[in-house]
Amino acid sequence: MNSGYLSLILLCITLILFASGWKELYLRSISHKGMLLFFVSWIVFSRLTVTVKQVQVQLVYVVVFLISLGILYVTQGFIHKLHLLSIGLLLGSLHFLLQQLLEMDPILIVRDSEWDTALLLALVAVILQRNALEQIAALSIGYLLGDMYQAGIHPKDGYHHLGNGTFQDQWWLSVFAARTMTIILQTVYNGFRSVIRSWMERKGGWRK
Question: Are the C-beta atoms of 98 and 120 separated by less than 8 Å?
Fold first, then answer.
């Protein structure tokens, strides 16, 4: 599959899910207008590129940067902001490390190096953060930094590329996987709580 196609497929799947009423589970705190603006911005800016000296920036990279900045801004408390930023820095370093490791030793690749990296980052994000917006912000910061590291070390045709198709695919796969895993874990947790609560109530009833 060519780079950039996966992000469009996941974007379409997300639109279908949101239209089917799944938005409240995936992103409850964002309005429908905000989501529509994001989808339109992604589709438009993923096709636009700006060149500054030796750096080519696909404008979707700026969209992800603005998302991160906006979520950091609305996050309450300096310590909370710092914690979120530290998770993003960790994910950025992990992104770069995994990419370099998989390039040096392809035997570690399960399916595809980019997909493997994206899913591992999603798993780490789920472990470190449950809140939807903060999860997205942490992953976004991680990808912004990771892509910058990669572009600095591996220029193509004399240019450093930021926000290319691989970046878009990985960002979408990580965010979609992280939100899906979080929902599944929360559902399982709530199910266990209900079972245990029901068992405790029955146990109390038997004693009476």
Answer: yes
Q: How many CA atoms lie within 13 A of 203 on its CB side?
A: 6
Number of Cβ atoms within 10 Å of the Cβ of 49: 16
Half-sphere exposure of 137 (CA within 13 A, CB side): 24
Count CA within 13 A, CB hemisphere, residue 18: 19
Other beta carbons within 10 angstroms of residue 129's beta carbon come to 22
Angstrom CA distances, 86 to 17, 79, 81, 141, 146, stand at 31, 10, 9, 9, 14
pTM (predicted TM-score):
0.88
Task: Give the N- to C-terminal CA distance of the chain in Å, as an integer.
Answer: 64
67 Cβ contact list (under 8 Å, min separation 6)? 38, 136, 137, 140
Task: State how beta strands 49-52 and 55-58 pair.
Answer: antiparallel
| Residue in the structure block whose two tokens are 């998302």 | 67
Going residue by residue through the chain (208 aa), what tens digit of pLDDT does each one get?
Answer: 677 788 889 999 988 888 888 888 788 778 888 888 899 999 999 888 888 888 888 899 999 999 999 999 988 888 989 999 999 999 999 988 888 787 776 665 556 678 888 889 999 999 998 888 999 999 999 999 988 888 878 777 778 888 888 899 999 999 999 999 998 988 888 888 777 777 776 765 555 4
Q: What secondary structure does DSSP assign to 18-40, as a single string?
A: HHTT-HHHH-TTS-HHHHHHHHH
